[in-house]
């Protein structure tokens, strides 16, 4: 058998009492052995508790395992384990490996309470690693990564399967690895492998070795770290979040020294162009900055000198040329760019974002970034990727699977590793993977003062795992840990797909399942109604804000309104047919448009790092003849549907500046050229930098080429500046009244209405009324009119418009056209492709 393949493992060691086998396997033999142990068929199948724990095994046949002492069972699990079956003639007709995760969780249940990694908070400093199936584990201790290691024995705790070695204080600052001898199913033999610590707190350059550091060491903290005040807490329904890659943020900021561009340190330079802009957004009402993955990932060399760069002058090439992407693709995988969704070590800052990636310096740089963002008025969200690893097996990027083969990853029925997440998928349904997730998040919260966590592909996590994270964060207090864990917001991608879909293996952390937990999920319903189509469909399909205009089907209005109401399942309103309907009753591709219980559980957005950024989506959807100013106004309209909605709002940083990625729909490895944010509007917005990389975009090149070559689709500097200021106006409007971001579903139901709903509603125009009576001391009524049509609209209000006036933020709007909006006797007059907000003074 090839060493790159695992032996099929159809048998599942559910717990110490039971082996489960698929019925077709059972039909091939009459008797079965686990090693030398006879297996006894259990006619009733799995016990109820087992079926609840492993619902995907309910149809399997169950076999009882002879009772064994803990020590004997532990020894059995440290060797190669096979189930064999014989027919009536005694011939072997079944021979299969065994999946061990269930029995390991059963036998080593006490490991859930073990302290792993470097343990310094008691009187017995030590390194501990969970490796219950290993035959031996030794500690390799290095003075420098280039030195030969000193080998130290590690002792095994038979109760937990944890191996530990005492640590001397003088060893702090040294490097280490674990030397593990273990039977590995990929090699089909016992292997000895040297592996880093999955609980690493610091790493050598390029993650070759783990590093012993004390995160409480004052030398690793910026001045005032322990006493610095956070920006005021923000309720989830009031949050406005901008998302950015650390590298994208400043790699093209020429106001910074070259060595600091694309690094943590760039955020600490308040006078840079990038930070001046970010601070202006915070001053207007942006509350959080969401950083794409910043934990150690595998795809980028840490040192700048080791990162390949493009030699040609790409700016000199034609805007619709394929040559730029060819140059970028030629060095992809060796350059300095990747989004970072290929995690290697979950709890150490990424080295390539550090000015100095060697040793513990990156810890100080990361903390300095957090402190600087807090000082700028922003809380910090970290994008975390616990649902998969870069590699499994014996690959050099594999850590978990070299320590406990076959445990930390989710296995398919034949024992192969699931990869529906794009990479080897982890199994947070297993006790110790769940523990790793919880321990890692708590470390980031406690030692790096992270204010929120966005879980990548959260639907591949059990709901119970995310709730356990929530409980553990809630236990952090400002008095003891220096962190108020209850103020940390959790949200993620609650998508339902893959081998876990429809709760096949556990109750997933999906959109519908997370309702009522206070944990947020991205609202794709509003996204698709506003943008049009679907991320994987025809890119030219328009939506409410991207070209449907006066042809908008009123059912799309219903979907947008549910989003404006915070995606609430129970929100009642008059639908397009004139009937009262709830958010859950509005259809979204066979699912409910409204799914949240509370408004803070919906994260409303119209673009993110995935798929085309908003400007590029509009480029595909709008007629090529659409004037640049109208493109900008529609961009603002789309963003307004996020900013002025109930629930949390989310935007890809740069969309407020008409940012483009030259029509790239998946720029994760497209280099700085396609991803950089251009802070100087004289240099354009990133549109027309060449055809996007062929790997994910070549099928759209016939559409993209003419668009990229059209000079009018690159907006002039004044439009970029106007759009940014219009976004700031929207943020200030949201901040100006508590009716935006209502805390409960009851408050949303009581205060939010769409008075013109029904079959007579003007297609492409939505009027939203918010009642501030008894809540807002300044305005008793706020009315927003979203006009996505190409014509001025006049919208009458029940009860008239007396006393309404344009919001003070808009009377001198950056867009001169919007200043013409007025509350007239006939109704609210709003110019084409614009959003206007009117207010009525409180009495």
Automatic annotation (TrEMBL):
UniProt xrefs under SUPFAM superfamilies: (Trans)glycosidases, E set domains, Glycosyl hydrolase domain
Residue ranges of domain Alpha-1,6-glucosidases pullulanase-type C-terminal in the record: 684-839
Protein name: Pullulanase-type alpha-1,6-glucosidase
A Gene Ontology biological process term: carbohydrate metabolic process
Domain Glycoside hydrolase family 13 N-terminal: 116-200
One Pfam family here: Pullul_strch_C
Family: Belongs to the glycosyl hydrolase 13 family.
Molecular function (Gene Ontology), one example: pullulanase activity
Residue ranges of domain Pullulanase N2 in the record: 36-106
UniProt xrefs under Gene3D superfamilies: Glycosidases, Golgi alpha-mannosidase II, Immunoglobulins, Rab geranylgeranyltransferase alpha-subunit, insert domain
Secretion signal span: none
């Amino acid at each position: 058998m090839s060493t790159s393949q695992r032996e099929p493992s159809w048998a599942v060691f559910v717990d110490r009492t039971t082996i489960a086998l698929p019925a077709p396997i059972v039909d091939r033999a009459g008797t079965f052995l686990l090693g030398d142990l006879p297996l006894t068929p259990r006619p009733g199948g799995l016990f109820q508790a087992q079926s609840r724990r492993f619902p995907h095994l309910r149809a399997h046949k169950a076999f009882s395992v002879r009772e064994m002492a803990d020590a004997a069972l532990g020894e059995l699990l440290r060797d190669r384990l096979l189930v064999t079956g014989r027919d009536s003639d005694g011939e072997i007709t079944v021979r299969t490996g065994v999946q061990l995760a269930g029995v390991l969780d059963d036998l080593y249940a006490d490991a859930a309470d073990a302290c792993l990694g470097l343990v310094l908070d008691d009187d017995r400093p030590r390194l501990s690693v969970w490796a219950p199936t290993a035959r031996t584990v030794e500690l390799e201790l290095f003075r420098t990564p280039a030195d030969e290691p000193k080998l130290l024995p590690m002792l095994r705790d038979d109760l937990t399967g944890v191996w530990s070695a005492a640590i001397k204080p003088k060893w702090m600052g040294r490097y280490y690895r674990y030397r593990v001898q273990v039977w590995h199913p990929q090699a089909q033999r016992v292997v000895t492998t040297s592996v880093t610590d999955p609980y690493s707190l610091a790493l050598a350059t390029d993650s070759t070795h783990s590093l012993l550091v004390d995160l409480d060491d004052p030398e690793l903290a910026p001045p005032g770290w322990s006493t610095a005040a956070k920006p005021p807490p923000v309720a989830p329904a009031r949050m406005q979040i901008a998302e950015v890659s650390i590298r994208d943020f400043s790699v093209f900021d020429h106001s910074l020294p070259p060595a600091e561009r694309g690094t943590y340190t760039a955020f600490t330079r308040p006078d840079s162009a990038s930070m001046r802009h970010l601070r202006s957004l915070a001053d207007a009402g942006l509350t959080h900055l969401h950083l794409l993955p910043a934990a150690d990932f595998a795809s980028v060399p840490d040192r700048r000198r080791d990162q390949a760069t493009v030699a040609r002058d790409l700016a000199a090439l034609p805007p619709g040329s394929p040559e730029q992407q060819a140059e970028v693709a030629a060095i992809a995988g060796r350059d300095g760019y990747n989004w970072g969704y290929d995690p290697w070590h979950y709890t150490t800052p990424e080295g390539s974002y550090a000015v100095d990636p060697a040793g513990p310096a990156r810890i100080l740089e990361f903390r300095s970034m957090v402190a600087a963002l807090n000082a700028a008025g922003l809380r910090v969200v970290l994008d975390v990727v616990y649902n998969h690893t870069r590699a499994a097996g014996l690959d050099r990027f594999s850590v978990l699977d070299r320590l406990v083969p076959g445990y930390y990853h989710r296995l398919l029925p034949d024992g192969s590793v699931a990869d529906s997440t794009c990479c080897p998928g982890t199994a947070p349904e297993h006790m110790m993977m769940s523990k790793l997730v919880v321990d890692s998040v708590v470390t980031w919260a406690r030692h790096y003062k992270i204010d929120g966590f966005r879980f990548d592909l959260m639907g591949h996590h059990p709901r119970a795992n995310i709730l356990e994270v929530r409980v553990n964060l809630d236990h952090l207090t400002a008095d003891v840990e220096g962190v108020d864990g209850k103020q940390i917001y959790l949200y993620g991608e609650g998508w339902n797909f893959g081998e876990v879909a429809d709760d096949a293996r556990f109750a997933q952390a999906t959109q519908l399942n997370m309702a009522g937990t206070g944990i947020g999920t991205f609202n794709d319903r509003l996204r698709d109604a506003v943008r049009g189509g679907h991320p994987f469909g025809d890119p030219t399909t328009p939506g409410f804000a991207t070209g449907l205009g006066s042809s908008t089907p009123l059912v799309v209005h219903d979907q947008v309104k549910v989003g404006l109401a915070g995606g609430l399942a129970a929100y009642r309103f008059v639908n397009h047919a004139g009937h009262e309907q709830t958010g859950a009753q509005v259809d979204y591709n066979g699912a409910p448009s409204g799914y949240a219980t509370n408004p803070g559980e919906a994260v409303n957005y119209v673009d993110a790092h995935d798929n085309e950024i908003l400007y590029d989506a509009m480029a595909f959807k709008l007629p090529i003849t659409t004037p640049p100013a109208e493109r900008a106004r529609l961009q603002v309209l789309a963003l307004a549907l996020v900013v002025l909605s109930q629930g949390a709002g989310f935007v890809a940083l740069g969309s407020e500046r008409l940012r483009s990625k030259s029509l790239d729909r998946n720029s994760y490895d497209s280099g700085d050229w396609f991803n950089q944010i251009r802070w100087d509007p004289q240099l354009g917005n990133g549109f027309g930098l060449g055809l996007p990389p062929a790997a994910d975009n070549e099928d759209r090149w016939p559409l993209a080429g003419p668009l990229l070559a059209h000079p009018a689709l690159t907006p002039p500097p004044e439009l970029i500046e106007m759009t940014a200021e219009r976004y700031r106006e929207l943020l200030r409007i949201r901040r100006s009244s508590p009716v935006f971001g209502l805390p409960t579903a009851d408050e949303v139901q009581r205060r939010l209405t769409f008075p013109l709903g029904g079959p007579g509603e003007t297609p492409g125009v939505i009027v939203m009324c918010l009642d501030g009576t008894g809540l807002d001391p300044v305005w008793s009524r706020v009315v927003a009119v979203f006009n996505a049509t190409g014509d001025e609209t006049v919208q009458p209000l029940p009860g008239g418009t007396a006393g309404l006036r344009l919001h003070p933020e808009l009377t001198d709007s950056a867009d001169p056209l919007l200043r013409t909006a007025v509350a007239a006797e006939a109704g609210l007059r709003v110019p084409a492709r614009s959003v206007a907000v009117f207010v009525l003074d409180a009495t």
